[in-house]
Specification:
It is built from 7 helices and no strands. The radius of gyration is 24 Å and the shape is elongated.
């Protein structure tokens, strides 16, 4: 039975039928996502903010296909919200060009880090210097400041 399945699959692939079916399936999935007849609830404001943070992150990391699906599924407006507006809503100060989501993660990881306040120039022995360098390598260069 497995041999028959393998032969059929190989034959369909060689004829291009299997790739046509996959392509049609993908197209139908995207058509279903674009279907305006589905009764979707209106997005709460917090969801719009979260989706915008994710959008900015996806754009920064060149995940364009994932972003296209996100925008279709969430019905997020095609134009991104103004970054200054996002900062204002999240009580953040925009200090770098990295996505704001990095700021949020950095804020919470710095608060819970065991040596978050340690600076490399304050460390005297070599063992502690290596610890700080390792910790700083994981930290984004962006900070968050609450109003």
């Amino acid at each position: 039975m497995d041999d028959l399945t393998s032969v059929i699959k190989q034959t369909l692939e060689e004829r291009g039928v299997l790739s046509d079916i996959r392509g049609k399936l993908r197209a139908e999935v995207f058509n279903a996502l674009e279907d305006n007849t589905l009764n979707r609830p209106r997005l709460p404001s917090v969801n719009i903010l979260i989706n915008e943070l994710i959008r900015e992150y996806l754009l920064y990391n060149n995940h364009h296909h994932t972003l296209a699906v996100l925008l279709q599924e969430t019905r997020q407006p095609p134009q991104p919200l103004d970054r200054q507006f996002l900062c204002s809503e999240l009580h953040m100060r925009d200090q770098q060009s990295l996505p704001l989501l990095y700021n949020l993660v950095s804020h919470f990881t710095d608060q819970h880090s065991s040596n978050g306040g340690v600076k490399q120039d304050e460390v005297e022995d070599e063992e502690k210097e290596e610890e700080v360098e390792e910790d700083n390598a994981r930290r984004p260069l962006v900070t968050i400041i609450k109003k």
